[in-house]
Amino acid sequence: MAVLFRLRQTGRWFHMDWVYTTGALFRDLQTSRVRRLLSILGVVIGTAAVISSLAVVEGGREQLRAHLEKLGVNLVVLEDRFRPDIPREYEDQLKSLQTESVLTAGQGYGTPSEKIDAKNRMHEDGMLSGLDAGSAAVVSGVLRLGDVKHLRKRFLNATLVEPITMQWAQVGQVGARPFGARVEGGTPHGAIVRDLRVREGRYLLPMDVDRSEKVCVLGVDMAKRLLGEGHAVGRYISMLGSRWRVIGILERKGTMMRFNYDRLIIVPITAMHERTGVEVVNALLFQARDKEAASIIRHELLGEVMACLPGRMEEDFSVFSQDDLAEQHDETLRTFKILTICVAAFSLLVSGIGIMNIMLVSVRERTHEIGVWKAVGATDLDILSYFLAESVLTCLLGGGLGILLGVVLAADATGFVASSVAEISSWKPIFCPEFFVLSLGSTVVIGLLSGIFPAIVAARLEPTEALRYE
Amino acid sequence: MYVELSAIEKVYRMSERVEVPALRGIDLSVEKGEFVALVGPSGCGKTTLLSVLGLLTWPTAGTYCLDGCDTRSVSRREQAGLRSELIGFIFQSYNLLARETAWRNVMFPLTFRSQTRGTRKRTAMEALDAVGLADRADHYPSQLSGGEQQRVAVARALVNRPRLLIADEPTGNLDSHTGKEILELIIRLAGEYGTSIVMATHDLTVARRAGRIVSMADGGVVPSEANG
Ligand SMILES: Nc1ncnc2c1ncn2[C@@H]1O[C@H](COP(=O)(O)OP(=O)(O)OP(=O)(O)O)[C@@H](O)[C@H]1O
Ligand SMILES: [Mg+2]
Question: Is the complex ipTM higher than 0.90?
């Protein structure tokens, strides 16, 4: 009676000494090694998937942050995807000009256009104010330089509103084969909006635009391709039926807003219009005063443009800001993360079943021992916790191996994911301590879930039954 | 009265229809320090009775008072505690933990008691010394003979100084000489600690060493003339 009274007083749930038991536990973990390793394969894969995807996504976020900072601040872009029907006569003229330029690329066709067009003098309203279509055809229903002036007045919360015209052209250089390249007609401030920096020479100046100068600024890769490694500034390239003097080379920038600045050719927008014969603005770059202004512009811009261009469809235009870009990338990364976490959850689940199986085997193999344990005083809870610990440790082993594998995989996975996320070439995975805690935590949960049933089976065994089992 | 069984019944239910009655109304009491031998033909229920006494199984009916308390009111956890503190077991097939050394086998019951590790180890070594196997402390059961294994088992059963020693044919697997040695060892140590012994055996020479012989047949106790 006295003993029972004392037992009730102290009421220890665990009778086992864990220091002694841990030794037994680690020894038991070494039984049926091959089967155990096979059963944790899923845990290894699952944990590796979790770790690597989290690290890749985190790295991607970081990369994106850096990327957006490079893009320029509070940028809003309007793009007109509609390509107007160029009147047939101009089209023909364009073709012949381009063909001519290609054919005569090596023979010093044309002279450097140094003439000063009196029409294009600078005006007090700003550098585009004095511009008109010049010799270019007027195509209705597209944005024109006049509209830029209007929008500039309308959006006073934009510090800069810069037009861009894009044209695909054959580009050549003396003695080299011509090739297709994207040529941008731009303005001096276009560099500021997008934070383009000149590495060599200079960028466009207002007078280049005013005079429709046949000058160009090249991206690094384009410069190399056209003119080789040597000095490029001051040399001439040939396109759009004319010779263009290279005035500057851009710093390396990479791909931004879906095009590669390193392969770009930038010329004064007026010169572009003059050579193509069509005055059209394909895109507008807005630099908003601040983040708030950017969001206002982003929402009001389309309506304003539609008012300028009655009869055009909204679907032809796209307006996007840095936030949109960030969101779009986040979306891609999120999808990737969800996908891999689903894979991870699935493989963890499947391996949970495998671990439950190996634990049932373990309980069966040790049934007689459980009988002995109980005979000398082990409680049900002792047995339960012993087998739970065994299954959790088995899982944790898988988790540990999975983390190692995940760290290795993450490096490869970034390359793979990076190729599916446009504009960001590649990045380093970033590992936060939480990832390890999270993945090991989920491993522990799987261990508990898959171990609880076998552990209960073991704990509920009647001592005599267990002792009789051989 | 230290142990008191009254009208104990144990029925093994094999299925809905098949029930095997192993014990049919057993009345038995054991005094402090008494040595009781259980004899009877195979299948008469000796092992089952010992299991009930050792709280290794639960009777289907009847009351079992151990150390003055009704075991029906004792939870499973408390039963484990009572096994640990009051009862020692010796089995015919030794039942040592095959993957532990001799001294760790002896120490094992102590790991369920709150003691310091140093005390545990010392107590275990003393118990091993008492059965004359101090020099084999680091040997594994597979490296010991049957008699030596049973000595380790005796040390393990008595290391806690239990009040009740349950022995199920402890000499059944041994030759008569070794068996006698083991029996004398058990009697000597139990006498030292004042432990009651309930021992099942088929060997009448073993049974004669007991203070009292209880004969069983077909799940019941046969009233013996000798004990009135
Ligand atoms: N787990 C069990 N399930 C079903 N029947 C059982 C179980 N354990 C014992 N029995 C039956 O109970 C009866 C008593 O068995 P017990 O083992 O107690 O006999 P015993 O006297 O110890 O025999 P032995 O001298 O051979 O060891 C037997 O008929 C046996 O078949
Ligand atoms: Mg028996």
Answer: yes
Q: Would an 8 Å CB–CB cutoff place B176 in contact with chain A?
A: no
Instruction: Give dist(CA B228, CA B226) in Å, integer.
Output: 6
Q: Is B109 on the interface with A (CB under 8 A)?
A: yes
Q: Which residues, other chains included, contact A454 with Cβ-Cβ below 8 Å and sequence gap of 6+? A: A356, A359, A360, A362, A363, A387, A391
The residues, any chain, with a CB within 8 Å of residue B104's CB and separated by 6 or more, are: B97, B124
- Please report, for residues A6, A124, A244, B89, the alpha-carbon distance to residue A382 in angstroms, rounded to integers and kept in the order given: 19, 90, 87, 20
Greatest Cα pair distance in chain A: 118
- Contact across the interface for B97 and A17, Cβ inside 8 Å: no
- Shortest CA gap A363–chain B (Å): 15
Where does a domain end: A277, A311, A345?
A: A311
pLDDT band at A113 (very low <50, low <70, confident <90, very high): very low
Higher-confidence position of A116 and B79: B79
Residues A345 and A449 in one domain: yes
| Cα B158 to middle of ligand 2, angstroms | 21
CATH superfamily of B32-57+86-226: P-loop containing nucleotide triphosphate hydrolases (3.40.50.300)
CB contact under 8 A, B77 and A380: yes
Which residues does chain A have within 8 Å of residue B91's beta carbon, measured at their own beta carbons? 467
Q: Is the pTM of this model over 0.80?
A: no
Chain B: residue nearest A377 by CA? B84
> Is A247 among the domain residues?
yes
pLDDT in tens, A220-251: 988 888 888 888 888 888 888 888 999 999 98
Q: Which of A1, A27, A377 sits opposite B67 (nearest CB)?
A: A1
Cβ-based burial of A65 (10 A; exposed 0-12, middle 13-18, buried ≥19):
exposed
Q: How far is CA A194 from CA A103, A227, A228, A397, B193, in A?
A: 35, 25, 26, 51, 94
